[in-house]
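Our consortium's second objective concerns turning raw sequence data into structural hypotheses that experimental partners can test. To show how far this objective has progressed, the report includes one record in full. It was chosen at random from the queue rather than selected for favorable results. The single chain below, 368 residues long, was entered without modification.
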Amino acid sequence: MSAAIDPAIGPDKARELFRAELAEVRTDAELQALRTRWVGRHNSWTAAFMDAVKTATPEQKKALGKGANELKKEVESALAERETALASTRRPANAVDVTLPGRVPQLGHRHPLSLIRDEVIEIFTRLGYQVLEGPEIEDDYHNFEALNMPADHPARDMQDTLYLAEPITSVGANAGGASAAGKSGSTPRPLTLLRTHTSAMQIRHMENNPPPLRMVAIGPVYRRDNLDLTHTPMFHQVEGLVVGKGITLADLKGTLTAMAESLFGAGTSVRFRPSFFPYTEPSAEVDIRCIKCKGAGCAMCKRTGWIEILGSGMVHPAVFEAVGYDPVEVTGFAFGMGVERVALLKWGVEDIRLFYENDLRFLEQFGL
């Protein structure tokens, strides 16, 4: 600790104190503090000595003034030398200090829809299903007609289809391995719309593969929906299809029960409700026991204890006939589920728009 300024101790003793303090200087800030303390204009050692000279006797003034001047010169010289020494060790501007620890890189996060997609794929791959994607631009036949929805069928109104301004007529092999014509004709059909469901990929796959088969088609689909809390004009869908001899509704229920337990936890109950889809008969809406209140009734399940999760049913004979299967020989089941729907339920998200707004505060909550 620096000694208090006391000119009575004399220049010689002050010189010893200065050298001791100078030996402790390690930084520019410490050097500046030492300079102010010893040669500053106010409240420094040299200033104190000069004030002492003014009040000294004539006999003392000469010796005290000489000692004060010599001390000031010595201090300024020593300070200049130390400043030079510190400057020689100072890092250049913008220099990199290699002794500092490295910066931790920022890691990205998996998108929640990608996590659900991969989880669904893993579930059905484990069950022995083939995973397909297929084209997103479709023709009317594969998207509607082959699925038992002819041009005048009222179910088309439920789809809110997005049509292309100009049809695309040059069609080659698609992602499913089938031409646009398939077994429906030798001439490729013009692609006129954005697919409204991934069920079109089921038709393409059956056209080029004999039964038995197990497949899931997964990918984006498009509809004329306004963007709000629960709707978006582009969303992702999973369509499952199993065809073979002796396939029954019990197989469908067992499959969907296994899927629900894998997605939402062991013991998740499944309920079937009669419904209508043109490409299945009989058809059923499938509910799961509310994962939040466990059936007691809450806002999520609208006090019913159940949450709708997907649509399903046994494949309609007209669909088999469209792809060249014999509906007497084989039966099958199909189901369709929205990936966003599963994500909303699984993580308790209330606004589907959060999945598309790229808000890092939201996305960083999910795993790598």
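The partners drew two points from this record. Residues 171-182 have pLDDT under 50 and may be disordered. The first strand starts at residue 130 and ends at 132. Both points have been shared with the crystallography group to help prioritize constructs.
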